[in-house]
Amino acid sequence: MSLIENQLDSMMPLELEWKSGDPEKLLAGRLEIHYHKINESNLQKLMPELLLRDAELAEIINNAKDRMHQKFVKDLTVLQKKGYLWPDIEIETLTWCLESLLEKLQNRVSKGEDVDYQQFAKIFCRTLFPPESLQKMRTGKI
To answer: What does the radius of gyration of the chain's CA atoms come to, in whole angstroms?
Structure first.
């Protein structure tokens, strides 16, 4: 059990830190690498059945999701303070929406369905950032 617990943080989707460059390309690349690593481990295929049979593992997964949620809120708060996000969207609601998108992506990947990470990243980034912020990132002004 401790082996799985130690690996969970690396299995959680992504860090919401943004540097200069195209955020859509950066995110698409991160997601593709992330899900490629998970598919190599084959743990994603076993996880649904393990969660049904093991309450302790389910609790560990829920705790990891809670940590991820708190990290999202923290990272988004930093981005909001810097003025990069939509100013009229509340962080907790934005976090919930982004987590929902990531969960749907996870479901598609675990079913073996094709995923266009570039299209997903485009929607994800446009949900986060107004056009001015995206343009500043692409041109290196952020």
So the answer is: 16
The predicted structure's pLDDT at residue 133? 93
Q: What does DSSP assign to residue 87?
A: T
Q: Which amino acid is at 100?
A: S
Section 1-13 average pLDDT? 57
Cβ-based neighbours of 26, under 8 Å, separated by 6 or more? 18, 19, 121
Distance spanning both ends of the chain, measured CA to CA: 42
Residue 125 has pLDDT above 70, yes or no: yes
Q: Which of 41, 16, 12 is nearest to 27 (CA)?
A: 16
**The two three-digit tokens of residue 81, written as one number:** 């303070």
- Which residue shows structure tokens 């049979």? 53
- The pTM of this model reads 0.79
